[in-house]
Design goal:
Blueprint (H helix, E strand, L loop, with lengths): L1 H37 L5 E6 L6 H13 L8 E6 L6 H9 L7 E6 L2 H6 L13 E5 L5 E6 L7 H5 L5 E4 L6 H13 L3 E4 L5 H9 L5 E5 H7 L1 H6 L2 E6 L21 H8 L8 E5 L5 H15 L2 H9 L7 E2 H11 L4 H11 L2
Parallel strand pairs: 1-2, 1-3, 6-7, 6-8
Antiparallel strand pairs: 3-10, 4-10, 4-11, 5-8, 5-9
Helix pairs in contact: 2-12, 6-10
């Protein structure tokens, strides 16, 4: 009888200790969850764009920023800044080495810079696998457009050109530079790529002023800034640098149709990396709970009815990818075989 009584008392004590321990764990975890939810209250999130004001990504980021704060717990203030230079490399390095991993600085830069890291570009000192990715706001369908002074109206005109056609570009690691280089290597069109512009807006101004002949950039940018020029014929669309036609410009031929060898087709398949080039990310080691909050806020923002209405009014295309999808895509780039990387290094490091 005494043994049973002692056993019962012992079980009660064990259960009491278990309950107390569980309660302590619960209470200790609760502040962490509350902290994660309340962290952004009274704070300011800064989106930093690695390119000059006025370009497509800058405009898209300002659109996202106007609606982002209401989808983050605590409704923080949201601002946009620009950190231009080296085609986004300066921002990428800053985000990796300097920015605090607190979830308050969101870098807006370009996925193709990962390719530049993989082929050994010395200026890049970050590892793309270590960032925390929020997502990508829109797609970019590259098209080559020329001014009247160039004399280029069709792809045949370009092939027959007696001189290298000057293509304005930002820098290695951007679609304006890398995509025409890949196409030149694949099919041999005569061109000279003039790099060093701070953003797409500056390149397009140089085309208008006939400082360069043309620009291979996004159709989404072209239709926003050159709509009247395209309609009047002052700017001519000559070639789509994508694997599938954009429905609005089906009459413009596809670059891939001029690829006659397997190597040429392989080079042009790499162009798919550039279709969702622009990404939002936070510094490595940003707390996972804050990253998850920002990832959800991004998805909620790009589905926001007010944002979509504003985007439609301003003719901006929203075609988002979420953060985990971006992270998986980037991880896949690190699986390129050595032969592919060697060829890409030869083409993109010109």
């Amino acid at each position: 009888m005494a043994r049973n009584k002692n056993k019962t008392v012992g079980l009660v004590i064990v259960q009491l200790i278990t309950a107390i321990t569980f309660g302590m764990v619960f209470l200790s975890a609760a502040p962490l969850r509350v902290h994660a939810e309340d962290f952004y209250k009274g704070k300011t999130i800064k989106f930093v764009v690695g390119y000059s004001p006025g370009g497509l990504f800058d405009s898209l980021t300002r659109l996202v920023a106007r609606h982002f704060g209401k989808h983050v717990p605590g409704n923080p203030n949201v601002i946009v800044d620009n950190m231009t230079g080296a085609g986004g490399i300066i921002l990428g390095n800053h985000l990796y080495h300097v920015a605090k991993p607190d979830g308050l600085t969101v870098g807006a830069w370009a996925t193709p810079l990962i390719l530049q890291q993989l082929i050994g570009t010395d200026a890049i000192t970050f590892d793309g696998r270590r960032f925390g990715y929020l997502g990508a706001p829109g797609a970019e369908d590259a098209v080559c457009a020329f001014n009247e002074a160039s004399g280029i109206k069709t792809v045949d005109d370009w092939f027959a050109a007696k001189r290298p056609i000057k293509i304005g570009a930002i820098a290695p690691g951007t679609s304006t530079s890398d995509v025409p280089k890949l196409f030149q290597a694949a099919v041999g069109l005569p061109m000279q790529i003039i790099e060093g512009f701070k953003g797409g807006a500056e390149v397009r101004l140089a085309v208008e002023n006939a400082e360069v002949d043309g620009y291979c950039g996004s159709w989404q940018s072209v239709k926003l800034t050159w709509s009247q020029a395209v309609t009047s014929g002052r700017i001519r669309l000559v070639l789509q640098m994508t694997l599938a036609s954009h429905p609005e410009i089906k009459q413009v031929p596809l670059a891939v149709s001029y690829a006659k060898t397997n190597e040429a087709r392989r080079l042009l398949r790499v162009v798919s990396v550039y279709r969702n080039p622009y990404i939002y990310s936070v510094a490595p080691a940003t707390p996972a709970d804050r990253l998850q909050i920002l990832q959800k806020a991004f998805v909620d923002t790009v589905e926001d009815a007010e944002l979509l209405a504003e985007a439609k009014k301003s003719r901006q295309e929203i075609e988002p990818l979420d953060g985990p999808t971006i992270a998986n895509t980037i991880a896949g780039l690190y699986e390129f075989d050595s032969a592919t990387l060697a060829r890409l290094r030869e083409v993109l490091k010109k």
